[in-house]
Structure formats: structure tokens, C-alpha cells
């Protein structure tokens, strides 16, 4: 479940007040979701020291590691330096905060070098890994962190390609309500086409990135093995990005039904303000139990897509459950 910046801050403050603040957080969200602002706010809560942004907040108590160089990777040495700083002695009431910005730029060596500290950091230490692409991190990183997904606030928000595609789909298919089995199968067909387009786009980006690397390193001694590994890594990243994009589309559909549920209950906050007309329409026509059933059907489809089941079959069944009146 995605949270606004203010909601995430409230959750962490409550956890701290109750003595159950976790020692490591994987904070995901787009560039405008407020990931770094959240760290500044928690730093202010823990140590009472806060700058205007993450860079100006750096001190002996708050250390930030970012990607460097043309390759934009986070190096092993940078992670080891952060570890040394986190273990350095400070005041007994102070908290040490380690921040890894753009954590998806950690390479496997950097990730593995940091695992022990991530799992068992020094006392009064909290570590934040910030990323827009959490799927690029090793499962061993995910398992050691509390995961916190941030959504953009409406005044900052700009839809990415998945969001734009979802808005177009809903406006095309649901401007007159939900419909019947035929409409549900139409939704399935449109989603299947959308997902195929997403997969093709990510694969094309991977190929273009590899072509640039190939041109840049073609004269480098012993570059063949590195390029083969690079090609495999880019292909894996494309596959991972597709799965993330597919998941995002389904989550946005759930959010749209959630908006209708909130409107039906008298609320005014919308996760998908671009679809307010369609949200009001189904809020007027659907019961709360029906909206909850549809949301549950989409969430089930999301879970089943993460298994080895046939993507096409899971989507067809899921759309029939979610969109038949």
C-alpha cells in the first residue's frame, strides 16, 4: 500500500513513540514522492537537526551515499566508509542515520558488503535505502528492510507511462459504468495489449542501453566478457521493470476503485484525480460491498500474477471477477 509523505511520517513517528521503530527501511517512490524529505523529517524527529534538504542535513549523525561517476554506481568503498561512520561513537542520546540514495545503483558487490550491517546495525542507528526501482535490489536487501512505498502528492504528481495508459483505458472503457461479461473481456484485451506494449518498451530501452555500452567499450581490452554480462543484466532489468510496470497498472486500478469507495463514504481525497468523473459514476452505481469485491478480485489477480501461473489465464479470470456487473 502506498502512502503520502505525511502518512509515512506519521507511521514512523508512531512507531518511534511506541518503541518499535525498525532499523532499516526501503523507501520506494518516484522522484517527486518525497523520499529525501521523509528522511529529513525523521532526522529532525530523532536528533532535532534538519537542513532544507538532504544534502544540507548531512553531519556526523546523518551520512548519505549516492551514485558517482559516469556509470552512476555506488561503490563498495563508499558503502564501507558509511559502515565505519555508522559505528563511530556519538552522544548516547543521538541517533545515527545512514542514507543510500538511488539504492538501485548498488552493484551486487556493494549490496553484499553491506548486508551484515543492514541486518544488525549499531544501537540507535537507522538506515534508509531510497529508490524509484525497488525491484532492482537483491531479495536479501528486501528481506532485511521494512518496505515503505510513497505516492506523489497531487501538487507534485506527474503520471508516468503506466499511469497515463491506465487513465486512457479507464476513460475509454468505463465512462458509462462497468458493464457485463463482454465488457470485462474487452478490458482483458486492452490490458493484455497494454502489458505487451510495456514489455516491448522496456526491452527496447535495454537494447538501446546495450548498444551505447557496446559502442563505448568496443575498443576496451577484455571487454567481451563484461559486455556479455552487461547484456544479460540489462535484459534482466528490462524483465524486472516490466513486472513492476504491470503491477503498477493493477495497483492503479485498485486505487481507482478505492477512490469510488471513498467518494461513496463521503471522503474527498482521491489517489487518481484524473479519473474523478469515472470514480463518481461508479460510486453512484455500485454498492460498497460490490466495490470491495472488485478491489479484492484485482488484488487476487495481482497475487496470482506473481506465481508461475499463466499470465493470460490469470488476467482473463481476474477481469471477469472484477468487471462483470
Defining traits:
325 residues; 6-stranded parallel sheet
Written overview of the protein:
By secondary structure, the protein is of the alpha/beta class. Helix content is 59%, strand content 9%. It has twelve helices and six strands. It has helices at residues 5-17, 35-47, 54-57, 76-87, 108-119, 139-142, 161-173, 181-217, 223-264, 276-285, 288-305, 311-323, and strands at residues 2-3, 24-28, 62-65, 96-100, 125-131, 146-150. The protein has a six-stranded parallel beta sheet, sandwiched between helices. The radius of gyration is 22 Å and the shape is globular. The model has no long low-confidence stretch (mean pLDDT 85).
Overview in brief:
This protein has 325 residues and is α/β, with parallel strands linked by helices. It has helices spanning 5-17, 35-47, 54-57, 76-87, 108-119, 139-142, 161-173, 181-217, 223-264, 276-285, 288-305, 311-323; strands at 2-3, 24-28, 62-65, 96-100, 125-131, 146-150.
Topology:
Blueprint: E1 2-3, H1 5-17, E2 24-28, H2 35-47, H3 54-57, E3 62-65, H4 76-87, E4 96-100, H5 108-119, E5 125-131, H6 139-142, E6 146-150, H7 161-173, H8 181-217, H9 223-264, H10 276-285, H11 288-305, H12 311-323
Parallel strand pairs: 1-6, 2-5, 2-6, 3-4, 4-5
Amino acid at each position: 500500500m502506498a502512502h503520502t509523505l505525511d502518512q509515512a511520517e506519521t507511521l514512523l513517528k508512531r512507531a518511534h513513540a511506541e518503541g518499535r521503530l525498525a532499523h532499516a527501511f526501503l523507501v520506494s517512490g518516484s522522484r517527486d514522492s518525497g523520499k529525501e524529505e521523509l528522511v529529513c523529517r525523521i532526522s529532525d524527529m530523532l536528533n532535532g537537526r534538519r537542513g532544507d534538504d538532504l544534502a544540507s542535513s548531512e553531519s556526523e549523525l546523518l551520512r548519505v551515499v549516492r551514485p558517482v561517476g559516469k556509470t552512476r554506481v555506488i561503490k563498495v568503498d563508499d558503502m564501507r566508509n558509511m559502515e565505519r561512520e555508522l559505528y563511530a561513537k556519538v552522544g548516547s542520546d543521538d541517533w545515527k542515520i545512514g542514507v543510500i540514495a538511488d539504492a538501485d545503483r548498488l552493484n551486487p558487490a556493494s549490496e553484499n558488503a553491506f548486508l551484515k550491517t543492514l541486518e544488525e546495525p549499531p544501537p540507535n542507528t537507522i538506515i534508509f535505502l531510497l529508490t524509484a526501482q525497488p525491484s532492482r535490489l537483491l531479495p536479501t536487501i528486501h528481506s532485511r528492510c521494512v518496505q515503505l512505498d510513497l505516492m506523489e502528492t497531487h501538487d507534485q504528481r506527474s503520471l508516468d507511462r503506466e499511469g497515463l495508459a491506465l487513465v486512457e483505458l479507464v476513460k475509454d472503457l468505463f465512462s458509462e459504468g462497468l458493464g457485463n461479461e463482454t465488457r470485462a473481456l474487452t478490458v482483458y484485451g486492452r490490458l493484455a495489449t497494454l502489458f505487451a506494449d510495456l514489455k516491448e518498451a522496456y526491452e527496447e530501452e535495454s537494447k538501446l542501453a546495450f548498444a551505447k555500452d557496446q559502442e563505448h567499450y568496443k575498443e576496451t581490452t577484455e571487454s567481451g566478457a563484461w559486455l556479455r554480462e552487461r547484456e544479460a543484466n540489462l535484459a534482466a532489468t528490462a524483465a524486472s521493470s516490466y513486472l513492476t510496470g504491470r503491477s503498477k497498472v493493477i495497483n492503479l486500478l485498485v486505487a481507482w476503485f478505492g477512490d469510488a469507495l471513498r467518494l461513496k463514504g463521503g471522503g474527498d481525497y482521491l489517489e487518481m484525480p484524473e479519473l474523478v468523473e469515472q470514480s463518481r459514476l461508479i460510486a453512484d452505481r455500485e454498492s460498497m460491498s460490490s466495490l470491495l469485491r472488485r478491489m479484492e478480485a484485482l488484488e487476487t489477480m495481482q497475487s496470482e500474477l506473481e506465481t508461475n501461473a499463466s499470465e493470460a489465464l490469470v488476467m482473463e479470470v481476474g477481469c471477469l471477477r472484477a468487471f462483470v456487473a
